[in-house]
Amino acid sequence: MANDSSYKDKKVITIGIVRDLTGLSERQIRYYEERKLIFPERSAGGSRKYSFADVELLVEIANKIEDGVQTHEIRKEMLRAQKKQNQNEITRKMIQGQLNAQFGLRKGPSS
Amino acid sequence: MANDSSYKDKKVITIGIVRDLTGLSERQIRYYEERKLIFPERSAGGSRKYSFADVELLVEIANKIEDGVQTHEIRKEMLRAQKKQNQNEITRKMIQGQLNAQFGLRKGPSS
DNA sequence: AAACCATGTCAGGTAACCTTACACAATTGT
DNA sequence: ACAATTGTGTAAGGTTACCTGACATGGTTT
Fold first, then answer.
1. Between β-strands A48-49 and B48-49, what pairing exists: parallel, antiparallel or unpaired?
2. Which of A9, A25, A51, B47 is the least buried, fewest Cβ under 10 Å from its Cβ?
3. Phi–psi pair at B42, nearest 5 degrees
4. pTM
5. What secondary structure letter does DSSP report for B13?
6. Contact A36/A75 with Cβ under 8 angstroms?
7. Residue B12 and residue B68: Cα distance in Å, rounded?
8. φ, ψ of residue B5 in degrees (nearest 5)
9. A52 contacts on B by Cβ (under 8 Å)
């Protein structure tokens, strides 16, 4: 209901493939996780699983680091960006609420 | 130039994940490959890599098999479907060619 | 100078994957 | 009726891929 449900966000890519797609070392990829910049899921056995969105994010992270930004700063940026995103979400819901109140829309069943 | 370049066709999913996504056994997935219904890529070390498109195709295949269609038949269907697809592609190119001839468009450099 | 950053690398261990082979019920072909 | 094929399970033995933890190191920060 809230999203794409599409391929981009499904966590299905193992770290070796991510390495190949990004050119980063596994060490780097794991380190950025340790620094809380990226959040893979895990398989039952403990293997990391990433999404295409994660892959793109990793590339951005790597670029910033190359520009001398440290993980600590990157993390702050990300939190800021996400806060803004949350705010938008809230705003959207508020407006939706206003409309519902004005025009008496109901949350009808799916279709 | 010819395609989406997007996530759907990138071969990045290992067989274990495909198993989880489709509910098929690894045996089945490998068998359908043996019957030439599906064509994963391979990692350097020999592990199979599938795309989301492959995953969807596998589900379709499994459905047909459940309906009693044999791999042999499914393969024929697929070849037929692909031939039609190729024909469309050819048609498209022919029309494009006609237009180019009519209006003298050049294949200029990329942008 | 002490602490931290980002990364490489090595070791030992487990999970995930590979191929080959045998089995077998069910279906299809002759 | 019988032989061949289909689709799937399962087991063995082997290799690849991934995991964590630890030590090393040259550059920054503090």
1. unpaired
2. A25
3. -130, 145
4. 0.85
5. B
6. yes
7. 31
8. 65, 10
9. 7, 10
Q: Strand D closer than 7 Å to the CB of B71? A: yes
pLDDT, one tens digit per residue, over A80-96 is 998 888 898 989 889 88
> Given an 8 Å threshold on Cβ–Cβ distance, is B7 in contact with A43?
no
Measuring CA to CA, which residue among B44, B38, B50 is closest to residue B10?
B50
Rg (CA), chain A: 18
CB A29 within 8 A of CB A19: yes
8 Å CB contact between A90 and A53: no
For residue range B16-35, what is the model confidence (pLDDT) as tens digits?
999 999 999 999 999 999 99
Residue pointed to by tokens 């293997």? A47
Query: Residue length, chain B?
Result: 111
At A88, is the secondary structure helix, strand, or coil?
helix
Q: Which among B8, B45, B14 is positioned nearest to B30, based on CA atoms?
A: B14
Query: Could you tell me if A16 lies within 8 Å of chain B, comparing CB atoms?
Result: yes
Q: Which two tokens stand for residue A61?
A: 């992270």
- Chain B hits for A7, Cβ within 8 Å: 6-8, 52
The H-or-E segment that residue A102 falls in is: helix A71-103
| Distance to chain A for B61, nearest Cα, Å | 20
What is the tally of helices (H) and strands (E) in chain B? 4, 2
Specify the residue for token string 């790597």: A62
Label residues A72-82 b or e (16+ Cβ within 10 Å = b).
eebeeebeeee
DSSP 8-state assignment for residue A77? H
